């Protein structure tokens, strides 16, 4: 008899114990699996990129001799040889993969500069634009979304949801153009294009900073306006999903004020699925910025890719594809990590 | 991937503080951005606006490579011209060669050796003298160093050797008699040997962006923001005299709309490649002067004429009807150039008939009225009927095999006017019973399709250099079906004449040959010539009074085959630089803005947004959910 | 009589239900209930699902949804809840009366540590002064955890790290936090195993008694209430139909519904209930079969050293079990004992790690095609008929599904009608076009059984066939199983945690513990004189009112 | 065999009656949703216009050589919304443009949702390497920048409406696949799936009788939402110069407006109508989709 009470809840005790001990290890293993998956995806991206872009029409040699009256056979041959375009495809592929493994992304045909360097230059500008837009969109979306859900059916809910949906339905480039016409040309509040005043501004780092922010404002607001609806909707529906949760009744039974019930109990739970979706979107937004970059002449990664397609600049395209894909993969990984960090259930599972 | 991240960090370190600061700052300042940045920053940036002596040019083409051995795009070569002086340069008046670093040049008796006498006392921007050795160095690099060939290999193709016989004399020997040598040296910027000597090995990867860059042109490079902008400073040592503009900036805009808006707003001073609609608006905007410059450019429709490749093989999938010159004539008759020029180019173009545009009057031929093919659908139809192309059921024109004729027409998607013209052409050819299948595609794809011959008709266009040799050379038999060449047409007689004009030292005799060659092309309908497009430009007339155009009378400011436009730019209150040719009287008047002001724009858009937003909200009304357990 | 702690005076609750077609209609969840509870008294509130007992309980703290309208007076310590201001109500909540919610799993916030959740009302209601120090609160939380017999370190745990019983203990600790005069326990042990259920009930009763706290306990299980509460109140369709001393209500139920409730929970060991589940069906019950302890010569189904392992966990650890033709075997054990896994392995839904299953002496194949034939012979009846039926399929389709899969020859409609008749859904035509949600729980379970019968199987594997059904229906389904066995010679392997069920219908019982069968034998001998201590502990845990004759 | 069965009572007839009733219920719930109703009304109008426009507006209006208006003339007289760069009526172009935008939007959405549904269902239903491969493929496509891929595809294939549909369709399915996968996983945990297995049902049986009908409502709602995204994608591709230049679409109109300098020329009548048309149609589809989602998705309906 004596041993029975201790074993009355075999499953929970046994699993609980194992979980507590093995938790960390399983997280590591889980992340390792995810990392492995990401690495496979990235490798596939590299392979696909190589063949996909070469299947595109267009001839990069044209780009090298572009703008010139004529070229000679010898010249074309030389250029082809220089970019290894005269070798069989598989030799090129093996060379490319070899270089890639050594960390060499090759040299851009169009710019005649190392691809890594070109991407490095543009990468941070894109991060600045998309990062700002994302942060604004997430902040706005979460704030409005949680309030809309809590008072769902109210006038606030209808207004905020309606506005978000209308903005979501606007083609980004069109909105950008209108913003440009109204706020830059019409009201003369922002510069028309670029990321900094050409040639720089005097007045030290603070002036430089203001200059960047000044250029950043319109494109960032345009992007924010279009994408924040997604976060609002996600937050709204996650919170709605939590609205009938039993623990909220518990919280109310404890005598908590409505505000506290929302802030302390409902929102933290609703945030969990939202965070995942936010991070999953983040990676995608980077490549989705191309139209904004084009309208506002923001020389980011999207524009670099778009322009490389016209050549087609194989090494540059391969490089940007890998970086854009890596951005998504990293963000997905982050989503997993953060989800595990904030949700105690997943953390130890 | 590991490397990418690493270089990314490097990139951040090396680049100007901008992005790095920005990333941090954005995080901090985000919340206040809309509130603070708008009112506070605007005046700061305003204060930074250059005062008078800065010329900001809005460019819409890519800024790619500033190494003069490699840069080939329009902007790259433009910047090259500003940085490095040439031996000779096409003059502003009519683009004939004029001495620059070379004072004079003479051909030898056999026509194979050219001797150039260097101008004395000319200095690089670092004070070193410019000598014949620099010329020898530059040319020899292009001829012998594979990494230095990209930009100007063609220009030196006929050169056998280049030697500096003494510091003031350069001798160029050619493989055969070639009168185009003078034109060729007008394309090659001379670089300082003392700077470039130790760059020779890695010349391929040398970016030439570490300022100050030693140069000899009117401006020297002083700053580069990769792909975004190039800043140049006036060269005090320029032999014609310092330009009046202190700083010249080329700023990249992604489209001409943004560029025009920048001009209106005052963010840019000079804009080009405008559309007719933009031009008309800018023309009427106060503080802006618009100029429609006669350009050295033509637009045409090339055809797959069925000519065989040099090795005798056929290529591609062109419709065989195009091999019939009568058929081509009929098509040519069916194009109303007047309408195209009026509707698509807004009247800012001239009808085209030949390869060499009228800005080079020396080389153009006079087309007799009886030979000229005018727009006449009826005539086109009767030519086709006569040539045995019957009309089938439903009016479709049938080929000799009795199948309805469909022609593929390619246009570049980065040239709006081509897509527009295509719509007209499609309808006109439709009146002949010929179906046109129009595709607007990327230029690289178009090049690929035309090179491999998978097309019937394709828009094309060229900027023609001052010497006709280059343009005429594009029509040779050996270029059919290659990545080179223009019309893919083959006529042995034409090829013979080409060689003849190349060796003709007498300019008048050469003219005659060149004109005959062009007549041949016209009679053979080598292409459907459409228009000589004007370059539509506009500048802030409240900041700059004059620019020197090329040709001097009604020519262009940008895209010149010289540096006259930027060199001759004169800020308000200044006199033109001493060495610049006189600017011609500008014909365009400066009047007040009419049109819908930006205020009106803003009002309309805001109104519309409000209305639509209201609609959306109305729609977004959601039913109240009753089972709400909230307190 | 002193003032009662809690008094309901003619309380009614209406819900404004908004159906899909937007026609508003009122649902009367509670109708004119008057009831009172003295300080320190324990009252059991019984009734089937949907009878309004939870609504009544929640109305005490006005925790009803917005759509609910409350009439009458609810006096808590003399103060009318229904007219209180929000501020006053918030102050009263938890401080005067607290709640132990049903299903502690969901009632605890998954992202907060349980210590914080216990501390929350302490800080809020200032039971330790207006701004208690962290250490004072921590001490109080530790004290509470000790009282509910949980290790103090568990304060740092998250709800999901606790077992069901532990979570319910946390809920109790939380309910005690502000030392209220009243605790409302809403089905506090429903989701728990018998043994844990007994422990939690013991604990709660003891703590409440020690502190003189009034307790309203809600349950559908009369036996549970009778074993803990002094008084019982029975609700039926929103009305209070009977109340009185527990023993009296159980022994002499007056209202028909109370009788049904009382009968639904058989007393294990009482021969009256042997082969006699409570049923009011006119078909009656078949004769009790003659039973013997001997293993039959040729079992219908036999497992041989069956093992199922999930990544190191032995869910089924070498089980030898047999079912004879026409025999009903009950497989008894707690949740997590591996009984469901065993059932799935028997059905071929779970591939065993080792060992094998023999049907009529032949080894059951593991390939999909081989299994298909076997599955005509052995059919499954699931615990929750609501989810076991595709909500989009009509009764006809649900029953015909197996016929179509196996392409059974003959008229489909006749087969379906026969199966429905066999499951006592009569007339069959009336049910064919009906969707599951239009049926009651018991009818749904009959449809599931009909779907199984359509294929004319030899053996039914029933996984907790009545666990999700209301007490009054339970007996009917069990009676059906008995009649089917009598009429069709259908054997059954019934998986259950409920010893009463085994006593009601099974011939033999197999007790499973940690993946192994610890005791197998005839029901009469095993449940009357268990030989294994685990079987004994299961019997001990039964509410006292339902165990006799030992 | 069926002699004694009245047709009204046959299982099939019963099933149809039930479906009609279910449809009626869905419609009533949908109609109670004002935003959905607004979206539907807008859609009906747009679709009607798109389908019937050839009947009452001659194709002539699209001809550049026979255009009668001034170039970029503001709204007046015969041209209620002004004229474009070739002197054609912007109103007529906008009306005709609805056809291609709708065609591309709907076809691409259907293509994308079809791929997504199949991949999602299969990857959730099967275990082992099938699922692993499908999941990997989905992950792979999720990781690829869709716009870049669409651009590359649209340059690689023959230029035309079909190519654009394909380019949008094959790049936008992974999110549907995820959604359907999640839904399938949920459904497969339902005991009635276990019951179907126990009855001897194979993969096809479970997928076709239980899973597909259960995910279809979700898929339908998702399709409606996807149409909106596809229309935006079409306009984006057109803006980037990758559209089909030989047809009139709203995206193509905007591209032409920008290319010809309508912004600088102040030709708001050329720039705004196609833009607002896109906003309206995308909004209409989105509102419809969300309303459908609320009605059809059991998870959302319970609230």
From TrEMBL, chain A:
It is a multi-pass membrane protein. Residues 123-335 form the ABC transmembrane type-1 domain. GO terms for cellular component: plasma membrane. Residues 1-23 are annotated as: Disordered. It comes from Herbihabitans rhizosphaerae. Pfam families: BPD_transp_1, BPD_transp_1_N. It comes from the Bacteria. This is Peptide/nickel transport system permease protein. It is found in: Cell membrane. The keyword Transport applies. Belongs to the binding-protein-dependent transport system permease family. The keyword Transmembrane helix applies.
UniProtKB/TrEMBL annotation, chain B:
Residues 1-37 form the signal peptide. Keywords: Membrane, Signal, Transmembrane, Transmembrane helix, Transport. Pfam families: SBP_bac_5 (PF00496). Belongs to the bacterial solute-binding protein 5 family. The chain crosses the membrane at residues 599-620. GO terms for cellular component: ATP-binding cassette (ABC) transporter complex; cell envelope; periplasmic space. Residues 97-474 form the Solute-binding protein family domain. This is Peptide/nickel transport system substrate-binding protein. GO terms for molecular function: peptide transmembrane transporter activity. InterPro entries: Peptide/Ni-bd, SBP_5, SBP_5_dom. It is found in: Cell envelope. One of its GO terms (biological process) is peptide transport.
Automatic annotation (TrEMBL), chain C:
This is Peptide/nickel transport system ATP-binding protein. GO terms for biological process: peptide transport; transmembrane transport. Belongs to the ABC transporter superfamily. The keyword Nucleotide-binding applies. Keywords: ATP-binding, Nucleotide-binding, Transport. GO terms for molecular function: ATP binding; ATP hydrolysis activity. Residues 6-262, 301-539 form the ABC transporter domain. Gene3D superfamilies: P-loop containing nucleotide triphosphate hydrolases (3.40.50.300).
UniProtKB/TrEMBL annotation, chain D:
Its main location: membrane. SUPFAM superfamilies: MetI-like. GO terms for biological process: transmembrane transport. The chain crosses the membrane at residues 37-57, 100-122, 134-154, 211-232, 267-292. PANTHER family: OPPC IN A BINDING PROTEIN-DEPENDENT TRANSPORT SYSTEM. Belongs to the binding-protein-dependent transport system permease family. This is Peptide/nickel transport system permease protein. It comes from Herbihabitans rhizosphaerae.
